[in-house]
Each structure stands twice: as C-alpha cells, then as structure tokens.
Amino acid sequence: MSSNKVEPKKKVPDDNEDNLLKSRTNISDLIHTVQFALIFEYCFGIYRFHIVNNGLQPTNRRMKLVGILIISAHVIFFYYFLKLPSAITGTASLVDTMDEVPSIVILLQYVTSAIMTSFLLSVGNINIFTTFANLDSMLHINTNQDFYKASRSRTFRYIIVLAVYHIIVSISDLLTSDEISLSKIIVLPIFFEENLEILIFCLIISMLKSRLNVINKYLTNFMNDKENSKNSVFIVGERKPAPKENFNLIGRMSYKNMKIRDLAVTYDIIGETCCLINQVFNFQIFMTLVSTFTYIIITIWTSLTYYRTPSANFSSLITIILWCITAIFKVAFMSLACERLLLTRNESKILVNKVIMDYDLPKPMRMQAKAFMDLIEAWPLRIFIYDMFSVDITLMLKYISVATTYLIVIIQVNHIVE
Phi and psi at residue 391, in whole multiples of 5°? Predict the structure, then answer.
C-alpha cells in the first residue's frame, strides 16, 4: 500500500506584502536619518510616535506616562528652585522678578509643546514620515542609500553644532554670574530643548526641500538629454557610463510619455506634506516667537536698569548679548530654512516653464507641464503662523524691526521714570 505524502504548499509572495515590507524599510531608513535628534527629545519626555517592527504607531500609554513624569519633574524643580514664590508674594525686587519671566515663558512652552506632541500630534507626525516614505518610493530615492547617508550626516552635524554652541553660552553664563545657583543649571536644559524643537522643524523642512530638489534634477536631466540628443556627436572610442545623478526619470519625448504627470503628482504630495508640517508645528513656531520676543524685551529692560547702577560689570553684559544673539538665531535659522524651500519651489517653477515653452516637445507632454504649473501655483509651500505671519526671510526683518521699536520705547520709558 503506497503512502501519499502531502507536501506543504509553498507560500507565494503577495504583492501587497512586498509593498508593505518596502514601505517599512523606507520608513526605517527615513527615521534613522533623524534618529539622533529624536533621542534628545526622549530625554525631555517628548515622543512623536512609537516604532514597532520598522513601522510607526501612535505613542502608547507607557511612553505618555514616562513623558508626564519627566515633565512633572521639570515643573517641580522650577517651583522649588526659582524665585517664583517670592515674586508672587512681592518680597523680590522688580528686576529679579522680571529676570524670571523668560524662564517661566520657556517652561510653559516646554510643557505645552511636550504634551501636545505626545498626546495630540502623534498621528500628524506619523503621516508626515509615512508620506516622506511614499515620496521616496515614487522618486526612486529609496534605492539610493547615499541620499539617506547624507541626511544622517546633516542631522548629526546640526545637533553637534547646536550642542557645542549651547555649552559655550551656558558656561559663559555661569562663569560671568555673581553666583552659580541651582536654578540657573535647571533652566539651561529647557533653553536647549526649545532650540532642539526648532532644529527638528528645520530638519523636516530640509527633508521636504531635498525631495523637491530631486524633482528639479529630473526636470533638468530631461531638458539636458533633449538638448544633447539634438547636438549628438559620434566619437569612436569607449563609451563612459552615465553617472547615477544624471538618471533621466522622465525618459524620451513621446506622445505616450506620462512621467511629467507623475512628477506633478509627487509635487502635489509635497504640497500636502508642507500643509501637514504647518499644522503640526504651528503652535511650536508661535510659542518660539512669543518666548524669544519676551526674552529679548525683558533682557533689554533689565540690562538698562541694571547697568545704570554702580555695580555693573562688563562680563554680565557679554552673557546678555550671547543669549540675545541665540534668541535671534532661532528665528533667523527657522526663517532661512523656509526661505530656502521657497527658492527651490521657484526653481521648479522656472524648470516647468521651460518645458511648457519648448515647442519641440509633443503636445501631451507640454499639457502635462501646464498642469504641473497649476499645481505649483496652487501650492506655494509657505509656512504660516496661524495664518497671520509667513515664515520666510521677511519675518526676520519684521522681527528685528519690532524689537528695535520696542527698544526705543523702553529706553524712553526708562528715561522718563528716572
């Protein structure tokens, strides 16, 4: 009697499973580019998402609980070691009370932004990075590990520069102070956290800009290949392979070529991602401007009051100048990052217009370019602060103008009071 052995069926790989695996791999590489900055956020109890099996999920209860404990510890330290109780009872001088206002504003910003990021904005952060992973697949960035390596090195450099600068300013603050109190040491990490949040925002804007640069490179390579095909010269000799940077995603001219339309779709996704980034970081940008402006105004006022006394010394003035420069740098760095994104968008507009005006191209390709231009006009890629201010280079100029105006007002008021 023959025994029939039933062989196990081989599992045929599903296309959906392959796409899911590739998406998770892309997200893993993507998160790894900013992982160094996220680790610093974890130290302050800020969790944007939960990484599970190379996938992103909303923050769980354990992460939220740890975040609440870290935030509560900072609040308790502030309450016991700052001069807030004496400021409330009126036993502290007016200058000492005003000196503590920037620290209180920074604390409020830290608490509110940490709670909102971990509890309310987790889904928004997940959507941002998931969209970036989809863009990388559509633009064939996921096959280029050098792209992710450059992003990781850029994040590492920015974090190191921020840490070194903050350490230098903190040491100068402690050395030039009349007495090194525990309250000063507690406040310094919170100032670093505020700068870190702005840096992460700028890194995400830079990620958006780098993907828009990829679209511009594809458009540039297409136009260059078209011009080279007209002026082709036959040379006897070994042909050198074209470098990977000159990869032509659009391909050759054809009535059936729809690659320009595909690039327009990726730009549409970039526009939606920019809007999503605006929603996630809206409160953080607004509070940064408020805290920075409050710090500069109060610092100017206290310095004018303090340096009219005989006990003034030049070393304390250096510390005040350094912290004011740091506060202005935050706004400048944020404005510059958004301005560079706008310049890249303008470059895309110029390249698409060249395609439209090239009458040697087939009409369907030029019609695709016109639709692409409509999308560029529809998505200006601007970051707005609650629809009040546009974050670009003009914001920096307006900020300096307002700070200068208040400086003049404070000097006049201080002169009248005396």
Answer: -85, 100
